[in-house]
Design a protein that fits this description.
The complex is a heterodimer. Chain A is mainly alpha-helical. Chain A folds into 2 domains: 134 residues; 137 residues, no CATH class. Chain A is built from 8 helices and no strands. In chain A, helix 2 crosses helix 6 and helix 7 packs antiparallel against helix 8. Chain B is globular. Chain B has one domain: P-loop containing nucleotide triphosphate hydrolases (Rossmann fold). The N and C termini of chain B lie far apart (38 Å). Chain B is α/β, with parallel strands linked by helices. Helices cover 35% and strands 26% of the residues of chain B. The mean pLDDT of chain B is 89. Chains A and B meet through helix 1 and helix 3 of A and helix 2 and helix 3 of B.
Chain lengths: 275, 232
């Protein structure tokens, strides 16, 4: 049943994010093409120059809009399919609350990851187009690519020498775990908001801020003993601090995921009251 | 074993409004039962508790001896008083959805009924009129071979022709081992198809009786008796 739930959930939430992806890449290409006109050589900001600056600002707005918009859309979709009229069908399916939660959580997280990667790729594409248009004469594309490779190779050497591999892994772990915990926090907040008899959406927003505050406080408290023990030690590289910090943050987020999943499942089992 | 058992069921909203008050009843198999009562009597609350959409404040409900859960939901076909289909989906997608989740869903039966009403399977739910959406929902619900059909106000707010269609659909599609529990306050329209009635008022069971008994003992139609019992 979980497989079927996931299949329908992917289909159900996919349309809007796909449109967002198309808008993201089309706007990136349009914004990148503006570098064909050397606006930086102009002394005035009229006509074409003004239009180009407007396009850049619009592009920035689109990036921000997509980033925030996707989270809001996913939260709204979850709320709608679980706790409004559509919930009458969702909660009468022959599945367990745990299966329902997983089927909502994983596609939600999946889209957050896909969009994050797409954002990074879009910004890289934008930067690449900018460099291609404003590069000094004589710099070929092959040379440019080989220069970029060199920079990454140097970064790799620096990281490898000073415990950077551990640092890199700790960041990777944190990014992955925070994606999962971010969506679980949305699910947990919306579900906890249902315990409020009236103004359930307001209750969900309140729950989100409350959970966020608790997570921040717990993260700081969890890291305190580690920081104290480190105070007396000799710090060889910044990674000595950053790696355990990020690892600890990942552990806290894993605990957050487990707690919120358990609480949400409990609310759906024992306290579900659809109006 | 009775199909449905309601034991000491109490539901209190917001710690003050008592919707159901220590309700006890049993429902057998192979019947069409009218759940009757004035507005606010607790019909929908009872139904939502049976389907697991509401949790009891006290007491319990059992379907096939089990509390509401995945096992009972697999055997209960529920038509709520509102549209629960996503407006963005097509009729064909909703059929696929039901077929995926309910083993007892009969796709061919659903398609036949849709065809007979001229409803386009490719149409999006949001493009359908309110009445057509209700018909699509009824078709989906009645295309299952469930043990218990729970229909909450299936004929409220629809025109007389649609009412006739709905009643015909209920009679034609339910199998004789299943039970149909339908709530309504439009008794005249459904009286002829009912085997039993349950009267509830202010969350209390007023009576549970066969339609024949009412006619014999009271010498009245169910509608007339209802008006007498619930006279304001």
């Amino acid at each position: 049943m979980l497989k079927k739930l996931m299949k329908h959930e992917w289909k159900s939430i996919g349309k809007i994010p796909v449109i967002m992806l198309i808008v993201l890449f089309v706007s990136t290409i349009i914004a990148g093409l503006t570098f064909a006109y050397p606006v930086w050589e102009s002394e005035t900001l009229t006509g074409v120059e003004f239009l180009i600056v407007f396009v850049w600002m619009l592009y920035y707005g689109i990036l921000m809009g997509i980033s925030v918009g996707l989270s809001i859309y996913l939260a709204a979709h979850f709320y709608k399919s679980m706790y409004t009229d559509e919930g009458y069908l969702t909660h009468t399916l022959p599945v367990t609350p745990g299966q329902l939660l997983i089927s909502k959580w994983l596609p939600m997280t999946g889209w957050l990851f896909i969009m994050s990667i797409a954002m990074i790729l879009a910004i890289l594409l934008f930067a690449f187009m900018a460099v291609m248009f404003i590069r000094p004469d004589g710099l070929t594309t092959m040379q440019l690519i080989s220069d970029i490779k060199e920079v990454f190779a140097e970064l790799g050497t620096v990281f490898g020498e000073q415990g950077g591999v551990g640092f890199f892994l700790s960041i990777l772990l944190m990014v992955v775990v925070s994606g999962f915990s971010g969506s679980m926090m949305v699910i947990g907040s919306v579900t906890l908001g249902q315990l409020v008899s009236k103004h359930k959406i307001l209750g969900s927003v309140g729950a989100y801020f409350a959970i966020n505050s608790i997570v921040t406080t717990v993260s700081m408290l969890a890291m305190l003993p580690m920081m104290i023990s480190m105070a007396g030690e000799e710090i060889v590289s910044p990674f000595d601090i950053l790696t355990p910090t990020y690892t600890m943050m990942s552990v806290v987020m894993l605990v957050v995921i487990a707690v919120l999943f358990f609480v949400s499942e409990l609310v759906m089992k024992k306290k579900l009251n659809l109006d | 074993m009775e199909l449905v058992k309601v034991e000491n069921l109490t539901k209190v909203y917001d710690k003050k409004k008592q919707a159901l008050n220590h309700l006890n009843l049993e429902i057998g198999r192979g019947k069409i039962i009218g759940l009757l009562g004035p507005n606010g009597s607790g019909k929908t609350t009872l139904i939502k508790t049976l389907t697991g959409l509401l949790q009891p404040s006290e007491g319990a409900v059992y379907i096939n001896g089990q509390k509401p859960g995945p096992e009972t939901k697999a055997r209960v076909s529920y038509l709520p008083e509102r549209t629960y289909l996503s407006p963005a989906k097509r009729v064909s997608e909703v059929i696929e959805f039901f077929a995926d989740f309910y083993e007892d869903f009969r796709t061919e039966r659903a398609k036949e009924m849709l065809n007979s009403l001229g409803i386009d399977e490719k149409a999006k739910i949001k493009t359908l009129s309110k009445g057509t959406r209700e018909k699509v929902q009824l078709i989906l619900v009645m295309s299952r071979d469930a043990d218990l059909f729970i229909l909450d106000e299936p004929i409220a707010g629809v025109d007389p022709a649609a009412r006739d269609y709905i009643i015909k659909t209920i009679i034609t599609n339910y199998n004789e081992n299943a039970t149909v529990l339908l709530s309504t306050h439009l008794i005249t329209d459904i009286e002829n198809i009912l085997d039993e009635v349950i009267f509830i008022k202010d969350g209390n069971l007023v009576m549970q009786s066969t339609v024949e008994e009412i006619r014999e003992k009271e010498g009245k139609s169910v509608d007339a008796y209802f008006r007498e019992v619930f006279a304001c």
